[in-house]
Specification:
The protein is an alpha/beta fold. It has one domain: Rossmann fold (3-Layer(aba) Sandwich). Helix content is 43%, strand content 21%. It is built from seven helices and nine strands. The strands form two sheets. The protein has a five-stranded parallel beta sheet. It has a four-stranded mixed beta sheet with strand order 4-3-6-5. A hairpin with a 2-residue loop joins strand 5 and strand 6. Helix 5 runs antiparallel to helix 6.
């Protein structure tokens, strides 16, 4: 299926609350393309409704650090006080299954990944700060302190958007899904 035999590795980044996961889920549902979002590992506790292995691989700090020492992460970082990372085996398993992997990661994770292996496409999801603040508040998952920290981080992430192949503004969900489909369709075009 893939010209070089390797399934594509894509990165979708953006500030917390920008809609990365929602856009990606919509794209997969709409297109049916062989894509899997990488399930990250984290040391943070599960939130209500999160399922281990589906939303995250929840690890205690010792297990996470052991995986780091074993070279098991493509990238890892401290984000909002917790460890997060992309397991190498997840990307390899997806490629073996003929599925492209999308890493929905932050800017520092993207920088680490592209330093270790080629990224076929990188897209930064951008949202104006006032809209981002509104979304974070509507989620109702964060304290005022956490919202302030996320907005401060977002300013730095928005400043790094020029490092990506494409910038996708998410003002309206359906338009954002359609734009991402146009960006990535070249990877999934099949010859008749």
């Amino acid at each position: 299926m893939w010209s070089d035999g390797l399934a594509p590795l894509m990165v979708l980044s953006g500030p917390s609350g920008a809609g990365k996961t929602t856009i990606l889920t919509g794209l997969i549902q709409r297109t049916g393309w062989p894509i899997r979002q990488s399930v990250s590992a984290t040391t943070r506790p599960p939130r209500a409704g999160e399922v281990p292995g589906v939303h995250y691989h929840f690890l205690d700090r010792a297990a996470f650090e052991a995986e780091v020492q074993a070279g098991g992460f493509l990238e890892h970082a401290v984000v909002h006080g917790h460890l997060y990372g992309t397991l190498v085996r997840t990307v390899e398993d997806n490629s073996r299954d003929g599925r492209a992997t999308v890493l929905a990661i932050d800017v520092q994770g993207f920088r680490k990944v592209r330093g270790r292996r080629p990224v076929d496409s990188s897209v930064f999801v951008s949202v104006p700060l006032p809209e981002l603040e509104k979304r974070l508040r509507l989620r109702g998952m964060d304290s005022e302190e956490a919202i302030a920290r996320r907005l401060a981080n977002a300013r730095g992430e928005l400043a790094a958007s020029g490092e990506y192949d494409e910038i996708l503004e998410n003002r309206e969900l359906e338009a954002a899904i359609e734009k991402l489909a146009m960006i990535w369709e070249r990877f999934f075009h099949m010859e008749a």
